[in-house]
Amino acid sequence: MNAQRIISAVVGIAAGLLVAFVFFGDFGNEDTATSADNKSKAEKVFVPYGELDDYYMLASGGHSGQLFVYGVPSMRKIRTVPVFTPDPATGYGYDKESKEMLGDYTWGDFHHPAVSETEGDYDGEFLFANDVGNNRVAAVDLGIFHTVDIMDLPNMGGPHAGVFLTSNTEYIALPTRFARPLGGEYASLDKYEEEYKGVVSMTTFDKKKKEFDLAFQIVLPPWSYDLSDAGKKDSSDWIVMTTYNTEFATTNLEINASQNDRDYIVMINWKKLEKAVADGKYDDVNGAKMVDPRDVKGAIYAVPVAKSPHGVDVTPDGTRFIASGKLAPLMTVFSFEKAFDAIEKGDFDDEKFGIPILPYEDVMEREVDPPGALGPLHTQFDDKGHAYNTMFISSEVVKWKVDTGEVIDRKPSYYSPGHASAAEGDTVDPDGKWLVALNKIAKDNFLSVGPSHPESMDLYDISGEEMEHIMAAPVDPEPHYAQIIHRDKIKPKKLYEKDEDRPNSVWSVDDAHIERKGDEVHVYGVALRSRFVFDAKAERPDAVTVKQGDKVFFHMTNIDLDQDITHGFGINDYNLNFEVQPGQTSTLEFVADKAGTYPIYCTNFCSALHQEMSGYLLVEPK
Amino acid sequence: MKKKLSKVSMFSLIAAAIIIFITLFVPWWGMEFYAPQYPEGLDIIVYPTTLAGDIDVVNGLNHYIGMKEFSNESFPELQFMPYIVAGIAVLTLIVAFLRRKSLLYGLIALFALGGAVGILDMRRWLKKFGTELDPNAPIDLEPFVPPIIGENTIANFVTNSYFTWGAFLLGLAFILMIFPLWKDRGK
Predict the structure, then answer these.
(1) Residues of the domain holding A67
(2) Which of these, A267, A253, A266, lies nearest to A192 by C-alpha position?
(3) Structural domain includes residue A467
(4) Contact at CB, A612 and B56, closer than 8 angstroms
(5) Which end of chain B has less neighbouring CB within 10 Å, N or C?
(6) pTM here?
(7) Is residue A4 part of a domain?
(8) Each residue of A200-233: pLDDT tens digit?
(9) CATH number of the domain bearing residue A613
């Protein structure tokens, strides 16, 4: 017994040594090759002090409700821009304007950012964001990287399949993920097919007023709409959307929504629907103009697709749309031209909801099925006719040729990518420079911070024939999609402009004053290095006395018109804080319901005398 | 009666008059401020009619050392300088058309005197701003006098003062004024 153990131990050790010798023995200069390799990778991403990254990566922050701004290729995080979620650091959700914009919501689920487009290319003016959690759409002004409007969308059940934009930002479209009775009203799940609907919101955005408008909504069968894209160039009148749960499962979707071998890609002609709405062919449903595309000839078709697809992405030239199979391990290339021919020929059957179904064989151009590549989720493009697909299950990126389906290269990702984002890779004019895989699993890629892990992003250089994995970078949960836009297209301001006509603004220390109207106290104050002036004529210009129960408005203007001199404004014990950027006027509104003495102080370090930048709020008891 | 100045001299003086007039619209003097936090620099630019550049920012920073705020209102010269400059341009034109050397001597003397007074006046202001610092200021600094030309260091700032286009043009006008003395020498 003992002898046997000893023998097996010796054999084990010997085998181990052999393996170690074979695998780790120094048979060549592999190590030096690797270190030279790493050096050249490092050189590709190192941005020396004084120089800047070539690209902005604007990544959704998922259920953080925020926008993450990264520099590419360095993968340095530059800023978090709050969109659907309050942000005490900047006072977003605390000052009057952003508080009203957020309403009572404390979170959002931001999945897919979309930079405003002109002729199918990013124009860098605005970024639009969807909130799957609370059915909202938001716009971020890329001149100030600040959210400027949020609109609630009625009749929706989580607009996951947005946002995507038509070629000239005519519409910001958001298809729903969960079918739901219109208006979210009560209806038994037994009445799913009759009572539940899928809805697409078609919103417009006025760039001058910086305001959304819900132009119309499209009512669809209660399928789940997963992802979508707008056509480009010759196909720009069309939008395409992937569906799942055409089974109408109402429970345990994991199994029950994965039964049909085919789901659909829905093709909608938004131009025709726009005209129908203009002609009054709509019903008013909870304040939305609801159009049924089945009532508009030629406005809706469906194409069968391998089951439960995720992304559908239109090629840069606008001739094809590519579905990523997710549960079917293949990418299906569909031709818009073939679809248009099939429509022309009238070659279709009716689906039970009355939607014409185009024959798969007639519209499909090619199925691309790299062996062992599993779980394709999303497609990006370069400038040389290649597509790049993320493979969630086999954890890799596959590069292939759109025209032939030929697989060019495959590189692992660490681990399980969802979307990928290539430099301008979803526009009519991709740059073909970098690709970032937005991974769902990080495991031990980075120093551990316990059970809650960061997500992980892989950066690939895609400028050569083969992709080169350059680095992995951690990111807060959780970017679903990102867009990478060249820095020349974004023109941020350094300061807010001095606008003497701006309501509630005060531009000189001497003009700071307090007005009392009944139980309202309006402080027209200024912040400057390194003091607050609330009332220029008072004995103590930085103290404000109010009565308990007064409604207090601090209208603060930061009159330091100097780059990066931000002033914060926190009130001790009152759970209030906000910021005013140089040249900005913001209002903090609250009821002084607690009597007492409360220090006010600048919360954003502004100068050598920042610590002294303070005052008092004195609340006289009733 | 002496001979009049030559035609060439007349044109030279007319050119001087025009150039003097043009200086109304260009900056004469400036000061650049550099600090670790301001690698791009801050500017004070002085036109004969107004101050320009990052005046508010510089004032904001100066309050730490108790320097008085400056603005167009704090320099009465800016109110009447345009008249003086235009006046000298007109006088130069008159001398050009009268073409009398004695008047030209007078003009040159006046111009030189004006320049000297101007520089003394600048020096006076620089001294006033640099030395009359508010004793209650948060940062105590030894009084200082920034130079009219060249570099100086104040706290974290390195300043660089310089004459610019307006001053160069005035120099050119001066050369055009004395040119007739050489051109018409011995006449």
Answers:
(1) 9-489
(2) A253
(3) yes
(4) no
(5) N
(6) 0.90
(7) no
(8) 999 999 999 999 999 999 999 999 999 999 999 9
(9) 2.60.40.420
